[in-house]
């Protein structure tokens, strides 16, 4: 069972985890300021974190999703995405967007398995928006993929 808690303070462990998904702290803090952060715990162990940033009354971005290395490939990322989709549906959002690098093969697979579809490629995004080169899988990250999915609406069940 994962307990999801809204992020109100940043512990060193949580900071490291968020930076593992976005190495530029100014981007992380800007997203936290503009949106809402969630941390997933199993007992006292941090197993996932995310940041959601609203773009409109109906559109939301998953600006950060991170899972510690020790918990990867155990469904923690998919569980956080399921939690985020449920929370977003309760808030009446209609579309969730996420962006990732073209060299981020693991996250790209997770997003697609969770129902996201690529809608746009942004050439040279990472070389324009990051102070230092990011290297993943032995490749300098340049382009960003934007993925989206519709958020299933939460409808009230029949009144009995």
From TrEMBL:
Enzyme's top EC category: transferase
Claim: Acyltransferase is one of the keywords in the record: yes
Enzyme Commission numbers on file: 2.3.1.-
Gene3D superfamilies, sorted: 3.40.630.30
Domain of life: Bacteria
Listed InterPro entries: Acyl_CoA_acyltransferase, GNAT_dom
SUPFAM superfamilies given in the database record: Acyl-CoA N-acyltransferases (Nat)
Domain N-acetyltransferase: 1-135
Gene Ontology molecular function terms on file: acyltransferase activity, transferring groups other than amino-acyl groups
Keywords: Acyltransferase, Transferase
PROSITE patterns cross-referenced by the UniProt entry: GNAT
Name this protein carries in UniProt: GNAT family N-acetyltransferase
Keyword Protein biosynthesis carried by entry: no
């Amino acid at each position: 069972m994962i307990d999801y808690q809204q992020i109100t303070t940043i512990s060193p462990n949580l900071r490291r985890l968020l930076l593992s998904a976005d190495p530029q702290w100014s981007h992380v803090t800007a997203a936290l300021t503009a949106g809402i952060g969630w941390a997933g715990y199993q007992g006292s162990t941090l197993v996932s974190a995310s940041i959601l940033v609203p773009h409109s009354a109906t559109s939301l971005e998953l600006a950060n999703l991170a899972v510690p290395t020790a918990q990867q490939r155990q469904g923690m990322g998919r569980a956080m995405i399921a939690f985020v989709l449920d929370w977003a549906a309760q808030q009446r959002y209609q579309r969730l967007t996420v962006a990732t690098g073209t060299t981020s093969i693991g996250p790209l697979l997770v997003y697609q398995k969770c129902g996201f579809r690529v809608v746009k490629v942004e050439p040279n995004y990472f070389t324009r928006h990051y102070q230092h080169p990011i290297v993943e899988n032995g490749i300098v990250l340049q382009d960003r993929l934007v993925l989206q999915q519709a958020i299933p609406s939460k409808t009230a069940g029949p009144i009995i």
